[in-house]
User: Which sequence fits this backbone?
């Protein structure tokens, strides 16, 4: 068994709820990061789904 690891500063920067596309802070960013692996807010996720260019 391994000991519990603490979160590093790099890990905490990834969980900052800022969208990679529009750079706005939104709660849905962390939810989408868990579900899809991408840091996108809900509106950017929908636009990428409709217009996947």
Assistant:
């Amino acid at each position: 068994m391994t000991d519990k690891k603490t979160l590093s500063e790099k890990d905490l920067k990834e969980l900052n709820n800022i969208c990679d596309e529009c750079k706005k802070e939104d709660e849905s960013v962390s939810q989408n990061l868990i579900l899809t692996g991408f840091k996108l807010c809900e509106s950017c996720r929908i636009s990428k789904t409709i217009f996947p260019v």
Observations:
- The two ends are 45 Å apart (CA to CA).
- Residues 1 and 7 are 18 Å apart (CA to CA).
- The helical segments are 9-14, 28-36, 42-50.
- The first helix runs from residue 9 to 14.
